[in-house]
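Form P-L/3: holo structure prediction, ligand adenosine-5'-diphosphate.
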Amino acid sequence: MLRLDSISKQYPNNVQAVDNVSLEVADGEIITLIGPSGCGKTTLLRLINRLTEKTSGQIFIEGKEINRWNPIELRRQIGYVIQQVGLFPHLTVEQNISYVLRIMGTGKKKQRERAAELISLVGMDPSYLRRYPAQLSGGQAQRVGFARALAGNPSIILMDEPFGALDQITRLQLQDELLSLQNELKKTVIFVTHDIQEAMKMGDKIVLMRHGQLIQAGKPADFFIRP
Ligand code: ADP
Ligand code: ADP
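OUTPUT (holo model):
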């Protein structure tokens, strides 16, 4: 389980990006986080994986506060997927996927096996493992990004507008693929989007954020957006 307890983040320029946010994500649940640009969604995800440090509050993963986790173990425990994908351009698809395993010191053979397993899991032919990111379509790059996020078998996946840069058809296809994978994998997921339809479709629960605060949370069927 992932639990945020009164989390705040103030950047050095005094911007209060996240303001006293408390949130629980149950095991195997997808929470979609929506809200206007600049409301603090990305910052909230980056606080959870410690790409940025919180100003106050506590974040618990499996009951242990994130500051008490070993940083490499925390990186393994949390898969992170972003819109720009962020694949390393000078590394092959295989090397990108096994990046987290490499920093964990996993053996070469195991890395190769895991990369092959993951590329199939995300619906791509193993021949893609030898390609470079520049040789992939947007949808393929996003699949590889997802495979990379799964490499360390994390329990938590943080997704920051993962399909935001894709055309509509690819986007709908990847949404369906992600939902069917989730049926199998049952990860604990926070999925950021500013597309309300995507939020309704992907989320077991929807959380609305504004000015750094959580202002509404509920099941898609109970959720209303004020015009
Ligand atoms: P969202 O993901 O919802 O668009 P962000 O978390 O990116 O929102 O940003 C929240 C607020 O924090 C915005 O006002 C943004 O300008 C500010 N902000 C984001 N990153 C930084 C940073 N590194 N330094 C200072 N302010 C930042
Ligand atoms: P370094 O500490 O080596 O500079 P970074 O923190 O810049 O590494 O992250 C390297 C890459 O790994 C980036 O593309 C980043 O998006 C990705 N990354 C960071 N945190 C995670 C995570 N928890 N899970 C998966 N990928 C991550």
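COMMENT: The mean pLDDT is 92.
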